[in-house]
Specification:
Elements lengths: L1 E5 L11 H15 L3 E7 L13 E10 L2 E10 L5 E5 L1 H4 L10 H14 L10 E5 L5 H8 L11 E6 L7 E2 L4 H4 L8 E2 L2 E3 H8 L2 E4 L2 H6 L3 H4 L3 H6 L4 E3 L29 H12 L8 E5 L8 H11 L5 E6 L3 H13 L4 E5 L3 H10 L2 E4 L9 H7 L3 E5 L2 H6 L13 E3 L4 H15 L3 H12 L5 H16 L4
Parallel strand pairs: 1-2, 1-6, 2-5, 6-7, 7-11, 11-12, 13-14, 13-16, 14-15, 16-17, 17-18
Antiparallel strand pairs: 3-4, 4-5, 8-10, 9-10
Length: 473
């Protein structure tokens, strides 16, 4: 079976969020299970040239954007999973990936080029697996624009929502670029919507956890798309994201201070001491709670601000890493100054420090308002930093409350999205921590042996592809 995985960002080439991690690791997991899978993405200027060595040029063509055309040049980086790059200096020879006034034109070009490049490839995909708004036009284009091309008529589409909040809604005159009418299939409150095109025309809609697939069908989490999703609930399914366990392995990860394992995590204490030293915190054996996150309402920073004074009344340390909204950066600076020696805040994006934090923390805090899947809690499990999470989306699907009497559970879950719920979650974690090392070791072992690798999720995607196409691998 041939799968073409289309995404606007793919690790290690380009990353702004979790989409890149999925696009980099899911295709590898599919390939290991016997699927012939390739990836396609834009050839951004910002991609490290080291990653673009040995590219093979396949050819080029003119892609029509209604009143004019732009040239697409196609390259491939061969490897375990081949990656195709679509090059156009005008659209992708810029800094960053998104946020330009012509993003509607840039990704219309990309989506059309993904389809038009297919004759240059050595395989015809059975399924094009599209991801988020940037590839939302592909299912619609296949059925409304390119439906007369014989080689394309049997191609199916899977469209994965990674975060419904980001919808790719643009002015209505985008129809002049895309070349389709602004009808009920594409119009969203007077705008042209890439996301709606994907939701209306994909053969299967998936999202990145089972709980989130139910949540987005409600008014609270649907961001205006809940009606469409309820209409298409018969083809909507939730498949939990996995984690690349080869890259994120405390036994081999050279980004952390010292290796350890679920069978012997005594050296996790060394990682904690070294993290305290690096961040200028006293090297004390007290609970160290961490946050690695984007600073935004979605991630729970509004209720964190309301709860921090009471949380910091405990004899604990808090380590925070990330960037985001200025008001939350300022808030965290304020608390770091107020609780000097107890709170460390690093306003930066630093993959290496993030891994050190996972490895050195006792607990990992994710008080999200909503969380389609979340990778932070899965990484923290892997490194023995026990998650404290709100019950939503993928957090609800991966974390269960620890019961010291039965020894079951891998973290702490609070339900109400408010400061009181957050304070309860932290207090419960501190209560269990205070029961002694034997109880805490059992919980850490449960966390580290939780299996959220890609294999099970990849099998669910393969089953989806097979049901859709009638083919087996």
């Amino acid at each position: 079976m041939n799968i073409l995985f289309a995404a606007s960002e793919v690790t290690p080439f380009a990353k702004s969020g979790g989409l890149a991690d999925v696009s980099g690791s899911l295709p590898k997991a599919l390939k290991k299970l016997g699927i012939n899978v390739c990836v396609v993405m834009p050839k951004y200027k910002s991609i490290n040239q080291e990653y673009l060595r040995d590219l093979k040029y396949l050819g080029g063509f003119e892609t029509s954007l209604s009143w004019r055309s732009q040239r697409a040049e196609i390259y491939v980086k061969e490897g375990f999973v081949p990656v195709y790059f679509i090059e156009n200096e005008y659209y992708f020879g810029r800094d960053g990936f998104y946020g330009y006034g012509d993003d509607n034109e840039r990704f219309t070009f990309f989506d059309k080029a993904v389809i038009e490049m297919l004759p240059l490839l050595d395989f015809v995909p059975d399924v094009i697996h599209c991801n988020d708004w940037q590839t939302g036009l592909i299912p619609m284009l296949l059925k409304k624009v390119y439906n007369g091309m014989l080689m394309l008529q049997n191609i199916k589409t899977v469209y994965t929502i990674h975060n419904l909040q980001y919808q790719g809604n643009f002015p209505s005159d985008s129809v002049n670029i895309v070349g389709v009418p602004l009808d009920g299939d594409c119009e969203f409150y007077g705008q042209f919507s890439f996301m709606k095109c994907g939701l209306k025309f994909a053969d299967i809609i998936s999202t990145v956890s089972k709980t989130y697939s139910h949540e987005i069908c409600t008014y609270e989490y649907g961001y205006g798309m809940d009606g469409i999703l309820r209409e298409r609930q018969g083809v909507l399914k939730g498949i939990l994201n996995g984690l690349d366990y080869e890259i994120n392995d405390p036994e081999t990860d050279d980004r952390i201070y010292k290796h350890f394992s679920a069978g012997d995590f005594e050296d996790k204490k060394y990682n904690k001491k070294m993290l305290q030293e690096e961040l200028g915190l006293p090297q004390r054996n007290i609970p160290l709670i961490s946050i690695v996150s984007r600073f935004a309402d979605q991630k729970g920073f509004d209720i964190l601000g309301q709860a921090l004074d009471e949380i910091m009344n405990n004899d604990i340390q808090l380590v925070v890493l990330g960037t985001g909204e200025a008001r939350y950066e300022d808030m965290l600076r304020y608390f770091a100054d107020k609780y000097s020696g107890k709170i460390s805040v690093t306003i930066n994006f630093d993959d290496v420090l993030a891994q050190k934090i996972y490895a050195g923390s006792d607990m990992f805090l994710m008080p999200s308002k909503f969380e389609p899947c979340g990778l932070g809690q899965i990484i923290s499990l892997r490194y023995g930093a026990v998650p404290i999470v709100r019950k939503t989306g993928g957090l609800a699907d991966t974390i269960t409350n620890f019961n010291p009497e039965t020894g079951e559970g891998n973290g702490f879950v609070f339900e109400n999205y408010d400061a009181y719920g957050l304070i309860w979650g932290v207090s419960e974690a501190l209560r269990i921590y205070g029961m002694g090392e034997d109880v805490w070791k059992k919980l850490v072992y449960n966390a580290m042996t939780s299996d959220f690798s890609w294999e099970n999720s990849a099998k669910e995607y393969i089953e989806t592809y097979e049901n859709l196409t009638g083919k087996t691998e």
